[in-house]
Amino acid sequence: MSATIPDLRQLRYFVAVAEEQHFGRAAARLSMTQPPLSQAIRALEETLGVALFARTRRSVELTAVGADLLPEVRRLLASAEALRPLAQSLARGEAGVLALAFVSTADYGLLPLLLRDFGARYPRVRLQLTEATSDVQVEELVAGRLDAGLVISPLPPRHAAQLCWLPVAREPLVAAMPSALSARLGGAADDGWHDAAVSLRDLADAPLVIFPRHLAPGFYDSIMDCYGAAGIAPNVGQEAIQMQTIVSLVSAGMGVALVPQSLRHLRRTGVVYQPLAGPVPAIETGLVWRSAGVSPVLAAFIEIVRAHASTGGAVGA
């Protein structure tokens, strides 16, 4: 009787004999007779190619190899015993890995709320977080390299059939402008958020700092619609792919930007955020995932997101 790889039964027998230092007592502990126990230990030694016990007529002792092997075998058995509860946790979505991407705009309102609630409820789930633009996230989702993403609507029509969409938050656009410009317009010279609304017409001469359209067409078009509704042709001065960079360019006096209201939490020296006067389009952020093959972990995260969506998804406060 030999095997290429020892089985768990043989390893349990080995631990029992090592702890009892007697085949008879070990057999009684295992509720079996001594001959099959002795045969199983012999088979284990043959499989491993080493002697694990030094035997005499009255005693049995671990060899040096057996003594060194014993703690490793105990660890192996403990890991094997943990498989069942781990499998059940995985099936319930209480453990595992979730690969989640997010647009930079979500980092200042929606994302922290979701991560806080999900982490509190599912502390054993390991999150793999990636910041990426909406177009990159969609491609990564379709390719199966992401589980879910927080993106700005709308989704590309060519992928709509493969993806599920859960709208979570809608927030108005606000103006981010250099503090010197805000002061000239009668606003505030100090940095941060100010409640006084500013007319887009008052910002018409300032260069516009914006995302490239191909990276976030929905976001770009909302900004252009905002200018169009005011009867203004925007002067696009700079483009940047990260919201932090856009705000930094505003801080450097390179122009103004229209950003989701939650971005007011991104403080930069020399930047003032103010609401826009008149009708203002809202930016919708939501969760997207592949319609096929939703894992238990992803299903658990979707429920957390759905709970936030049901409360109205307020992220600008």
Automatic annotation (TrEMBL):
<keyword id="KW-0805">Transcription regulation</keyword>
<dbReference type="GO" id="GO:0032993">
    <property type="term" value="C:protein-DNA complex"/>
</dbReference>
<dbReference type="InterPro" id="IPR005119">
    <property type="entry name" value="LysR_subst-bd"/>
</dbReference>
<dbReference type="GO" id="GO:0003677">
    <property type="term" value="F:DNA binding"/>
</dbReference>
<dbReference type="InterPro" id="IPR036388">
    <property type="entry name" value="WH-like_DNA-bd_sf"/>
</dbReference>
<comment type="similarity">
    <text>Belongs to the LysR transcriptional regulatory family.</text>
</comment>
<dbReference type="GO" id="GO:0003700">
    <property type="term" value="F:DNA-binding transcription factor activity"/>
</dbReference>
<feature type="domain" description="HTH lysR-type">
    <location>
        <begin position="6"/>
        <end position="63"/>
    </location>
</feature>
<keyword id="KW-0238">DNA-binding</keyword>
<dbReference type="InterPro" id="IPR000847">
    <property type="entry name" value="LysR_HTH_N"/>
</dbReference>
<protein>
    <submittedName>
        <fullName>DNA-binding transcriptional regulator, LysR family</fullName>
    </submittedName>
</protein>
<dbReference type="Pfam" id="PF00126">
    <property type="entry name" value="HTH_1"/>
</dbReference>
<keyword id="KW-0804">Transcription</keyword>
<dbReference type="InterPro" id="IPR036390">
    <property type="entry name" value="WH_DNA-bd_sf"/>
</dbReference>
<dbReference type="Pfam" id="PF03466">
    <property type="entry name" value="LysR_substrate"/>
</dbReference>
